[in-house]
Amino acid sequence: MVAEAADADALLRIVALERPDVAVVDIRMPPTHKDEGLLAARRIRELYPQTAVVLLSQYLEPRYAARLLADQPSGLGYLLKERVSDIAVLVDALRRVCEGECVIDPTIVARLMRRRRPNSPLANLTERETQILRLMAEGRSNAAIANELGISEKTVEAASAPMFRKLGLEPSREVNRRVLAVLTLLRG
After folding, report:
1. Which residue of 40, 77, 100, 106 could cross-link 54, Cys pair, CB 3.0 to 4.6 Å?
2. What's the pTM value of the predicted model, to 2 decimals?
3. Angle 95-96-102 from CA coordinates, rounded to 5°
4. CB of 41 within 8 A of CB of 11?
């Protein structure tokens, strides 16, 4: 840890000076305690794309995740504060976002899965594909997904390919299909 910021302006100054690997940001920061942290996180990602960001929120606000992740989803996390009372969860999220992954709190993922629109490409996913996408959105690796579902990594890979196709995400060297699949989930 290099510093603690009292408000969004201080946070932006610290990131500019220290260039940390990751910034842990509360969505609601002084002076208004509304969305200053979210705006600061977006600014960090814009000015310092090499700095990963983990947003913390006391409230379940999927729209905040969608707003931030729509810009540049890799290297971003969004966790509920109650989750980070378990230090292992926070450390895992920090490691994953520093590796360029996208990590979303499981509670937020569950809410997003319940609110799918019928015309969404998500409606075409099988139950297994939906389970895999939910775990991807939580930032899990193929090995962790396999372990959670009691299947092999090869089965995860085999189920992911048709899931990506159903979401209109063809293989490409320019994009991370896992991150784009999570964005599709966020958009409903």
Report:
1. 77
2. 0.71
3. 145
4. no
